[in-house]
C-alpha cells in the first residue's frame, strides 16, 4: 500500500486500490495515516480477501479493529520474546557467536618475526581484528600493535 501511495500516477480521484492480501502496517497510527493519505487523494481501498471496503464507515471500523488486534498481538509476541531472553540469561545462556580462541603469545611472536596483521590472521586462521584484540591483553602490547591499530 505504501509503495502505491508514493506514486502520483496512481493518485486519481474515484479510483480504487484493490488488494488480494491485507498487509497491516507497523502500528495502528501508521495504518490510519496511510489510509488518510489514500482518502485525501480520493482513492478507495478494497481488500478482496478480507472483504473490506474502506470507502464505507463499517469497512473503516473493521479495518481499525483488525489493525488494533494486530498491534496488540505484536506487543504480546515482543513481551514473550523479552521474557524468554531474560529467563535464558538468568539460567546462564550466552547469546551471539562465540569469540575466536587466539593464542596471544603466538600472535606476538609472529608480529615480532615481521608478519603483517593480515598475514598473522591468515596464518592462525582468524581475522585481523581477532589477532589485534588478543595482543591487547598482553603487557607492552602497544609495542606490538604500533600505530596501525
Features:
7% strand, 3 strands, 2 domains, 7 helices, 3-stranded mixed sheet
Write up this protein.
- By secondary structure, this protein is mainly alpha-helical.
- It folds into two domains: 2-90, Resolvase, N-terminal catalytic domain (Rossmann fold), CATH 3.40.50; 97-138, Arc Repressor Mutant, subunit A.
- Helices cover 55% and strands 7% of the residues.
- It has seven helices and three strands.
- Strands 1-2-3 form a three-stranded mixed β-sheet, covered by helices on one side.
- Helix 2 (28-40) links the parallel strand 1 (16-19) and strand 2.
- Helix 4 packs across helix 6 and helix 5 packs across helix 6.
- The radius of gyration is 29 Å and the shape is elongated.
- The two termini are 48 Å apart.
- The relative contact order is 0.08.
- The model is unreliable at 1-6 (pLDDT under 50).
Q: What is this structure's SSE topology?
A:
Blueprint: H1 2-5, E1 16-19, H2 28-40, E2 44-47, E3 52-53, H3 57-90, H4 104-112, H5 117-124, H6 128-136, H7 141-145
Parallel strand pairs: 1-2
Antiparallel strand pairs: 2-3
Helix pairs in contact: 4-6, 5-6
Summarize the structure.
The protein is mostly helical and 149 residues long.
Number of domains: 2
Radius of gyration over C-alpha positions, nearest whole angstrom: 29 Å
What top-tier CATH class of the largest domain fits best?
Answer: Alpha Beta
Low-confidence stretches: 1-6
Give the rounded overall mean pLDDT: 79
How many E strands?
Answer: 3
How many individual helices?
A: 7
* Second rung of CATH, namely the architecture of the largest domain: 3-Layer(aba) Sandwich
Largest sheet, order of strands side by side? Answer: 1-2-3
- The dominant shape is elongated
Cα separation of the termini? 48 Å
Approximately what portion of the residues adopt beta-strand conformation? 5-15%
Helicity level: 55-70%
Major sheet details = 3 strands, mixed
Q: CATH superfamily of the largest domain, called what? A: Resolvase, N-terminal catalytic domain
CATH level-3 fold name of the largest domain: Rossmann fold
Oligomer: single chain
Amino acid at each position: 500500500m505504501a509503495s502505491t501511495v508514493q506514486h502520483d500516477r496512481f493518485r486519481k480521484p474515484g479510483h480504487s486500490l484493490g488488494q488480494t492480501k491485507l498487509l497491516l502496517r507497523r502500528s495502528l497510527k501508521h495504518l490510519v495515516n496511510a489510509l488518510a493519505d489514500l482518502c485525501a487523494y480520493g482513492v478507495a481501498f478494497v481488500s478482496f480477501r478480507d472483504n473490506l471496503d474502506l470507502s464505507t464507515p463499517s469497512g473503516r471500523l473493521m479495518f481499525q479493529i483488525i489493525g488494533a488486534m494486530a498491534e496488540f498481538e505484536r506487543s504480546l509476541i515482543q513481551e514473550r520474546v523479552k521474557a524468554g531472553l531474560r529467563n535464558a540469561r538468568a539460567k546462564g545462556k550466552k547469546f551471539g557467536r562465540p569469540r575466536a580462541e587466539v593464542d596471544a603469545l603466538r600472535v606476538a611472536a609472529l608480529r615480532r618475526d615481521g608478519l603483517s596483521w593480515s598475514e598473522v590472521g591468515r596464518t592462525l586462521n582468524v581475522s585481523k581484528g581477532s589477532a589485534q584484540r588478543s595482543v591487547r591483553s598482553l603487557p607492552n602490547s602497544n609495542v606490538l600493535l604500533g600505530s596501525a591499530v
